[in-house]
Each structure stands twice: as C-alpha cells, then as structure tokens.
Amino acid sequence: MNWKTIFNPFSKYSENQLLLVGILSLGITLALCQWFELQVDSIFHYRYADEKHSLIENIGLSLLSYSIAIIIFFILGKIYNKRARFIDIVNTVLISQIPGIFILLIGELPIITNSMESVRLVAEKNPENISPFDLIVICIFSFSALLLIAYGMTLFYNGFKTATNLKNWKQIVIFAFLIIVTTITCQFIF
C-alpha cells in the first residue's frame, strides 16, 4: 500500500469493495454514536444525542444527514459529468467518514474526557488556574481531530474527483462551497 492508495482508495478498489467497507464503517459509526450518546447531524460533525429521541430516531436522523449529502453531491456530480454514478457518490460519502470513527474513539479516552471536564469546571470558577497539562491534552486532541477531518475531506475530494472527473478550478470552488453549506445547514436542520 502506498500514499496514493491511502489518500485515494477510489482509484484502486472496486465500487463493491468500497461499498462494503463504507457500510461497515457506517455501522461502526452508528454503534459508537449510540454507545457514546452522540448523533451524526451532518457529514464531518457529531453532537450529543437528544435524550427525548429514541435509538431508531437517532439512527434515522444520522442516516438522513448522510442521505442529504449523497443526494446533493450526486446532483452536483451529474451536473459536472453526466456519466457520474450513484454508487460512486455513496462510496465517496461513506468512505470519507471513516476518520470520524477515530475522532469518536480518541475523544472518549479517559485522559481526554477528564481534561475537558477539568478545564470546563475550572474555567467556570477561576480560568487562571487551568492546568497546563489539561490544556496540552486538549490541544493535542484538537490537533489530531483537525488532521483526521482534513484526511476525511481529502478522501471526499478525491472520491468526488474520481467519480466526476473534476478538473476545473471553478468546479472545485463550487464543490468546496457546497461541502461547507451542506455541513452547516444539516447541523441547523437536525
């Protein structure tokens, strides 16, 4: 396995292999979200699950957020390239969310959760007494999460580029703008 495969698995693996891995990762993501009481409210974003929603409602809202992204980017893909296939866009969305699994797991490590809780409690009373260790732990986690999100966005871009033969810089700008709009809009809807 080389760097090209890591950053663009869409050019090496078949759509069926990617779909299988994507569905497996979706299942893992939904299970972790349920375990940690989180919900996928848009691509690349998680929030604490609403206590009044049932398990089925949380899974439904998570799947709906993925479905919205798939539909929007399939439409954009068809505009860019009439031969863009639905399965390629589904794979793009699902595979690009795999780094989120690592964010969920790292974010629930006791050292991370304890540091975040400690900083929250101290910041409410006396922010000057925040432990430097806790701040370092939070900064390392934040930087790691940022790298994983950037990797997910890279996977999303490379998958979409492979599915639609994206080349024009104007198309890339529209694609990037649409990711931002879709991510933010879904967060407000759900």
From TrEMBL:
Keywords: Membrane, Transmembrane, Transmembrane helix
Domain called Yip1: residue spans: 53-183
Transmembrane segments: 55-77, 89-113, 133-160, 172-189
Top-level division of the source organism's lineage: Bacteria
UniProt subcellular location: Membrane
Alphabetized InterPro entries for the sequence: Yip1_dom
Entry annotated with the keyword Transmembrane: yes
Membrane topology, from the record: Multi-pass membrane protein
Name the record gives this protein: YIP1 family protein
Natural source organism: Chryseobacterium camelliae
